[in-house]
Structure prediction request, 282 residues.
Amino acid sequence: MRLSTRAQYAVRAMVDLTLNSNGSPVSLREIASRENISLNYLEQLFHRLKKGAVVLSVRGPGGGYLLARDSASIRLGEIVTLVEEPLAPVACMDEGKKGCTRGDVCVTHMVWQGLGERIRGFLDSITLADLVREARGEEKR
Amino acid sequence: MRLSTRAQYAVRAMVDLTLNSNGSPVSLREIASRENISLNYLEQLFHRLKKGAVVLSVRGPGGGYLLARDSASIRLGEIVTLVEEPLAPVACMDEGKKGCTRGDVCVTHMVWQGLGERIRGFLDSITLADLVREARGEEKR
DNA sequence: TAATAGTTGACAATAATAGTAAGGTATGCT
DNA sequence: AGCATACCTTACTATTATTGTCAACTATTA
Prediction:
């Protein structure tokens, strides 16, 4: 039941981006060195984040990434889902998989579904702004 | 964020075991064929379940496994934890890992911790008896 | 035009998962 | 006694996903 490092990196990078952006783009190079994440790997992650419309890119010197929306409207569930394809804990919700005819299979199926909803619900209850606020609070100490 | 098949198998097998036990042991062979799980694999899982004291074993002909306790006192969290070593979504709670000195790392850390608690909490809120009751209800239709 | 920085696709190393195989041990039945 | 059952245990293999790395390309600015 491990979360991929992709998800962890993505969230950390988004916090870093928000924290260090003064309206101007932040380059992945900065984020990579601050957060100690491979630059190439980060690029892949931000590609997905851009496709998911949580960030915008600016090319060329002085370029980098910007939040596409207000940090208060970006939920962790979004970020995590974008970089980690299946958030659902189990593969069998795909089609009318045979095997799901057995009674007890369906019973456990409902459990995994409920679990997925809890996970998603929890992550969606936290916004990027929440994390950034906390991070700023911690810095002051 | 996928749950291992181990966890899924273990829960299904435990439901099957409870459903098909009339006080006498149920052999893994039966469970394996009913649930369509490899016998050898099931044996490994039940080894862990036995070590975790949720089942008892009876050797020899007519032997098999029995619940070690009432099904109402066996929580899914227990079963899942026993067969899937780390339930925590993230590896970094181990030691005083360097890197956790950065402010935002700790912020996200709290998120993963909270997530782990939700997962565990949800799974612990469901007992084997709950699932069995539902499975019996579904059969009647 | 040179440097920056995002864009993209292919590839490789590593680790975890999932499953197989095989032999051993305890027990009950005939 | 001895055979069959079924648990017990360890070792091994294959597959897959993750986690990266590499390299070439495109857009933009100074």
Q: What stands out?
A: Chain B touches chain A through 46 residues (CB under 8 Å). Strands of chain B lie at 55-58, 64-67. The longest helix of chain B spans residues 103-124.
